[in-house]
Amino acid sequence: MSYPLPPMPRRIESHFLPGPTGRLEALLEEPDDRSPRLAVVLCHPHPRFGGTMHNKVVYRLARGLRASGAVVLRFNFRGVGASHGEYGEMAGEVEDARAALGWLRERYPELPFALAGFSFGARAISELGCSIAGAQFLLAAGFSTRLGSTAYLETCTVPKVFIQSTHDQFAPREEFERAYAGMAEPKRVVWIEAADHFFAGALEQVESAAAEAVSR
Fold this sequence. Notes:
With 216 residues, the chain is of the alpha/beta class. It has one domain: 3-Layer(aba) Sandwich (Rossmann fold). The chain is 28% helix and 24% strand. It is built from five helices and eight strands. An eight-stranded mixed beta sheet has the order 1-2-4-3-5-6-7-8, with helices on both faces. A hairpin with a 2-residue loop joins strand 1 and strand 2. Helix 1 runs parallel beside helix 5 (203-215). The protein is globular and about 40 Å long. It starts with 10 loop residues before the first strand and ends with a helix. The mean pLDDT is 95.
């Protein structure tokens, strides 16, 4: 099912959040046409390869989530943009995401929460989401099979939605499907015909898939 996603003005706020190594630069976006029904932390791709919260896939994920009624908090990991600290070898970035989630839940204590991320950010949110209780779902776009073992997902019963490119150089389809087969239910994968890991030529489909994840 496709979801029409017209351009939407944004209710957006800039924040500096308290993080494990100092402040974290963040943007908070609420839906304009309704009260939020879900709170989502959204994480960006690899800090050492130019990943920021302004990445175009992250931006499209935020739009899709917001279109379905989510309030979205995206932030820069430690050492990126105006965030303090230095690259934390994934473990540090997982703790950054934990801090961002704590801030968001304090801001919206009445809302259920979910976690979303692209590439490196998808790995960070899945590691965090599988280690805590209460996430409605994990939305992992461009989940890389080349960032270490995925064994932790074999026992993770949090609902998982993967959005994968059919031509992802960091998660070739056959390789991803082998890993996916061993992951615990509930799970779902959305394959998007795209030229590469960054969903070239298919960003609208990524946005729609994110919207559908919330609507389901």
